[in-house]
Amino acid sequence: MIENIRLAFQGIWAHKMRSFLTMLGIIIGIASIISIVSTIKGTNEQIKKNLIGEGDNVVQIKLKEGGGDYQIEYEGLPQGVPVLNESRKEEILEIPEVVSASFYRMRDYADGIYYQDKSMDGGKVLGIDSDYLDTCGYQLVRGRGFNQKEYVNFKKVALLDETAANSFFEKGEETMGKALILGKDTKHLDKDIELCRTTNERISDQAAQLLIENQIPFTRSFIKIPFFLREKYRGAHQFYVIHTNRNRYSQARHTLDHMDSVFRRRLIVSNY
What we know:
Layout: H1 2-14, H2 16-52, E1 64-65, E2 68-69, H3 72-75, H4 86-93, E3 104-109, E4 113-115, E5 118-120, E6 123-128, H5 132-136, H6 148-152, H7 162-168, E7 181-182, E8 192-198, H8 201-213, E9 218-224, E10 238-245, H9 249-256, H10 261-264, E11 268-269
């Protein structure tokens, strides 16, 4: 044993340069491995911080399109994206690091949310399940949460965050039992009403031309058709909608009766 060690040292001493290069290669190799492992570990930690933030352990996973959230109610479920249901939720909960999970739907109301003469632009409304509040760590300041009957029957009840509550109500004002209007301006509900809609732009143009000829004021817009209703409307993606003043509705309705019968049958006229 001692003789082997002595011979090894003699070999190293006899070939100093080769021994030095061999040791240098080993040192560089070990240092490289340590650096790579440290870099990967640091990158993983940074990714976790970017996903869940400092001191927070809640991760929100959203389906995006371009720069905004994907509007699944209008565009439908993209190919390859799995449907999220209770069985999928159970699979997520089986992941060792997952403590709680919740599914929710979110919709933006660019037209605003209203309470009496007060409004809040750009509000968001979330449809949540029974685990959402606990999963996100939210606590109720006033009132109560949703009960099981409200979930099952899809009751029109809501919880307000601090921003919404301060926008609509004075400090200390009772909020229970109050009604909010989503996406409609209550100040104009008695003025402009929907006259008609159609999925055909040409028919909408003809209706608008008749209104112009009879000097009836109107506005035009379009709304997207939810994907689950498109089959009903022959695959159309949107409605062309015409609104008119409530006081001119009868005259406008009578004007549309003069349209070509073929076009008139494809026009959905509102009844008031």
